[in-house]
Design a protein that fits this description.
Keywords: Methyltransferase, Transferase. One of its GO terms (biological process) is methylation. Pfam families: Methyltransf_25, Rubredoxin. It comes from Paenibacillus sp. SYP-B3998. By secondary structure, the chain is α/β, with parallel strands linked by helices. Among the domains are: 1-51, Rubrerythrin, domain 2 (Single Sheet); 58-197 and 258-287 and 349-357, Vaccinia Virus protein VP39 (Rossmann fold), CATH 3.40.50.150. It has 8 helices and 14 strands. The chain has helices spanning 58-62, 64-68, 73-81, 100-103, 117-130, 170-182, 261-270, 309-314; strands at 3-6, 12-14, 48-50, 88-92, 109-114, 138-142, 154-159, 184-196, 202-212, 215-226, 231-242, 245-257, 273-280, 349-357. The chain has a 7-stranded mixed beta sheet, with helices on both faces. A hairpin with a 5-residue loop joins strand 1 and strand 2 (12-14). The chain is globular, with a radius of gyration of 24 Å. The two termini are 32 Å apart.
Amino acid sequence: MALTKCSFCSYTYDEWFGDSRNGVPAGTPLSVLAGTVCSRCGLQGVRHERQPSPKYAGQEAEYYDQFTGKAGISFYSDWLKEASQAPTVLELGVGTGRIAIEIAGHSAQVCGVDWSRDMLKIAEAKKERILKDHPGRFELIEADVMDFDARNAFSHILCPDGMFQHYTMMADHVALLQRIRHNLQEGGWLAVDLLLPPDQAYWQMTQHKKILNNKMVYKKVEGETSLSRQLFRCSVSFETYTDGTEQSRYRVEREYALMTPKELALLLAAEGFQIVKTYENYGLSTPWQTALLPDMISPDQVLGPTETLEELLEAGELERAVPYRKEAWMNGGYPLDGAMAGPPAHRSVRMTILARRQ
């Protein structure tokens, strides 16, 4: 994160918010503060260390599945079923095991790694309930993915839900891909989810979920995106109400690397991976062609430069073209122009990149 702490005097500094006590404005890099705000260490040398993102814990872990739902489960399950042999799968940042527990049913072996003890407790409970007849098929390991060294290489490695972006430094991205390559079989598959925030400097979203008849949980996300830092940051708040009265509030701040599919593709290629496919929102929407490699772009139409639909019909080859759909688009109208449902102008997007180790 942009939060740093001095190992000598424990002075902490957050580049996003500055230092109100010392009059340092928000957005001031740590590097320009040397000799200005701390008389003990002077903010010089290598004493200031970046702090890791907070572990998922407390109500964030407790309510994680309630708000993440089934996103990606069927996508990854269907993808792994295409393997010629029962795959061996490593999921980095396995969390509550919501994906891993589902794919363990048709995989030879699934290993989930996470450093959050609270999340792994939930995953372990699922394992005991769902895989009680095959407990050895799903292994959970508490560890930092940066340090994880598998006993045997896997055929598939998953990095879902923006796990890769929890690391914000380029050096960390390179080191993580090298670690992934080490734990992946030659010719093995890698899947990485990229989270692209709304294309606004400031944004927010709210969800709520009824847990029990008298218990309601609200989740509010307030975010900020910085193109110059290539980061986006969000504050996630959970408010729990019982019988309409607020009982508790939990808040955590998270920081993510702001990456595009192009940037990740170049990084993967540099580390010996071949990009095979890119999906948007697990295939529920179509990526812009500008986000794809040249060999992934399908032609806009299959008609020849002078052919017409009528000519294809006469030749009995109408299956080569997309049939004309009259009145397929009906946006507009007076006085509430655009009131019909459509894609939001500033929506967030999840991109999934599939690659193979060369």
